[in-house]
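Researcher: I'm preparing a figure for a lab meeting and need a structural model of a single chain. I don't have an experimental structure, so a prediction will have to do for now. The sequence is pasted below. Please return the structure as tokens so I can convert it later.
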Amino acid sequence: AAIIFFAFYGFDAIATAAEETKKPERDLAIGIVGSMVICTILYIAVAAAAIGAAPVASFADSPEPLAHIMRGLGQGVAAQWIAAAAVVALPTVLLAFLFGQSRIFLGMARDGLLPNRLARISNRGVPVVVTVFTAVVVAFLAGIMRLDELASLANAGTLMAFMAVGISLIVLRIREPNRERKFRAPLWWLVGGIAIVGCLTFFFSLRGMTQLYFLGWNVLGLVIYLVWSSRNSRLAKGEEVEG
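Model: Understood. Here is the structure written out token by token.
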């Protein structure tokens, strides 16, 4: 069940574009909520059409289920068009991921959690260095790991990120009840609690090897933080961070 989170990658990355939007308090809300609503409607529509066209067992294990369904219906040309569209769409997904992750690394570099040279901005206002760094890291991981293992590991990371949001919601409401907020969250304790429990449930439904990989990755990150990042963080020192 945790694999379904793969379909919801990218929505949280919209927030990383706050610095590059004219009115982030308005534009981010429209971008995040609007894209989630549109994509959810499309997901449900495609799933309903697929289930109505063929038994689930006939395409559940297929790497290209929609094209497989169309071939089963005798629509070979349509199947080829669907397969071609999937190939064309892959680079757009990759670019979206690189955009979001590079902005996260940019924020870390500005704070000192990563080398400061990664925070350099080009004359056109683009973080070229950190974007190239992100692409190299992603390419390296894709080259040494099986894609299904890498996808499961990414799912684990996404679940933990969503759980952290739920924890942050509860903690901030308790510690800073009078803080000015741009978004309303009625029943925050219930929303945050469901998010935490749900993410933990999905995380432990992943394969044991994925959980071990995730634990090892976090241990490596903790070592890097203790050796480098904790000593160089500007926020920890009370300094202002650029951007």
